[in-house]
Amino acid sequence: MKYSALKILWEGLTGNKGWAPVWREPDPKPEYDVIIIGGGGHGLATAYYLAKEFGVANVAVLEKGWIGGGNVGRNTTIIRSNYLLEGNQPFYELSLKLWEGLEQDLNYNAMISQRGILNLIHSDAQRDAFARRANGMRLSGADSELLDTAGIRKMCPFLDFENARFPIQGALWQPRGGTVRHDAVAWGYARGADARGVDIIQNCEVTGFQIENGTCTGVETSRGAIRARKVAVCVAGSSGRVMAQAGMRLPIESHVLQAFVSEGLKPVIPGVITFGAGHFYVSQSDKGGLVFGGDIDGYNTYAQRGGLPVVEDVCEGGMAIMPMIGRARLLRMWGGVMDMSMDGSPFIDKTHIDGLYFNGGWCYGGFKATPASGYCYAHLIARDQPHEVATQFRLDRFARGAMIDEKGQGAQPNLH
């Protein structure tokens, strides 16, 4: 079904009786060319690009829960490409470019809002670091601008410019950054993949791998065995548990990252703002709620809920730069299980088992990476060669001493 303004008008006049389900609910077939484990944003994007760009449509996406129930629906919706290292920056710039054409590509309203992202600067050393980052962004074709205090005052007059402990000295500004409706991304990719013949199978948990003579030939699931020529895993915070079923131990830990939404307020936040002297980031949704977050909880967990100490820490960060946030009431909070790699950067690679592929270790960057992750993973699966912007996301990079430590603090910024 093609969505359009005319279609919406017609359905409104005729009782909305012509809408079809967004995707099918098929039973699993005995065999596929490719099985993708994980029906989150990355898995659905991979299936979509496999079918659209590489002509591989005999694909099943297996999701143990429901579409949109994992991290793709449990994040703070920010998109950006303000990275520094050559292993990361071209990848995230590709992702931002894919975001910019996503709604037209999918014929689905993902509510992409490029209102910009403002990274505040609080020290001379931080200004030097952000100037270097801005130059690195420009070298990859991304947009960047360094603002002085006057420029920030004009944009965000509500910030605390008189805070002697955390003085606002400037900011790194990326106008093309912004936010996207997170669950709409999952629904849009699911609809697009389904329309191209991909089977999206919910409530189907993978319980084991079929491995014969060093080759993965399929999976065992709660709905029976399914064979495949290739099996691709992208299950975010469950990466360690799933890959352990194939006898693999990953350089990944699972932590919970909390997110928060305030009561609805009149428009005040122009885009995305991040605190440079702590870990706090905030934007405002179309419904008026302030959407914000900060550090991960400092313990390993598979639970989609966090602890009160991090709630206090995040709110303290918000109060430090915009004391007015203390008057807002917290409406709801939730947690996403993050797959934290030891250098803070992801993996998109083949494993040592033939026919078995892995995508994970996204840390804080999973949502913004969704389009490029799906595209590059589909490229790897279809051609058995990494995409040119994902050549450094290898599983063996720790053994080779080729870490991609973007912020110089690894997976645990609160311990450095």
Short summary:
28% of the residues lie in helices and 26% in strands.
Amount of beta strand: 25-35%
Total beta strands:
18
The unreliable regions are none
Order of helices and strands: HEHEEHHEHEHEEHEEEEHEEEEHEEEHH
Helical element count?
Answer: 11
N- to C-terminal distance:
51 Å
Helix content: 25-40%
Largest sheet: 8 strands, mixed
| Strand-pairing-aware structural class | alpha/beta
Mean pLDDT: 95
Q: What integer value in Å does the Rg equal?
A: 21 Å
Overall shape: globular
What report would you give on this structure?
The protein is an alpha/beta fold and 416 residues long. The chain is 28% helix and 26% strand. It contains 11 helices and 18 strands. The strands form 3 sheets. Strands 1, 2, 8, 9, 10, 11, 17 and 18 form an 8-stranded mixed sheet that branches. Strands 5-6-4-13-14-15-12-16 form an 8-stranded mixed sheet. Helix 2 packs parallel to helix 7, helix 2 crosses helix 10 (370-383) and helix 3 (89-100) packs across helix 10 (370-383). The mean pLDDT is 95.
